Request: fold
Amino acid sequence: MFLKYIELLDQWNSKCNLIKIRDHLELVEYHFLDSLQILRTCSWEGRLRVVDIGTGAGFPGVPLKICLPNLEMYLVEAQRRRCVFLQQLIEELNLTGCYLLCNRAEILAHNLEYRAAFDRVVVRAVSSLPVVLELGLPFLKEGGFLVAMRGVEVQDEINKSSRALSLLGGEVNKIVEYQVGERRPHHLLIVRKVFATPPKYPRRPGIPQKRPL
Reply:
């Protein structure tokens, strides 16, 4: 399945530069293996309902779904071109229980079908931490976990996110350091949902990025 994934990425990159990769080794290390580091964070057993916000070319949601077929995976992506690729990817890999939501997280999070409906939220390469929290925490059930893949200066990001955490119902659970390939160590930030996110969050599209909490 991963080989088919690589084949489809090669086809799409040849015409629309879907992701930036130099070779297949880099793709495997910095996209596939990097995504799977999330499995080191908290329990992933059972039929968990998971949403991947800003999935792009399917990371980290699709690698997680390939390795844990029991996950009910929802891929959130707003860019139409990427959505077309993702739909083909889901069909070609026959990913039963993997669903594409082609819309902005700010809109989907106010849909009663998705609000406070997920056991896990995963976010890989989406904006600053306060923005990630505003987009992600409304999707989580109380007691669920948001896993944010962050860079080197994670503690500084946490310090700047105290207001967002207190407003949105999140609490830092733990930080996991990891390293893939020759990159500097990165971090997985695990945030637990401790109370319901107020109904006004997330704010309308674009506002979280323009005026972070």
In short: The radius of gyration is 16 Å. The first helix runs from residue 2 to 16. The mean pLDDT is 95. Residues 2-210 form a domain with the Rossmann fold fold (CATH 3.40.50.150).
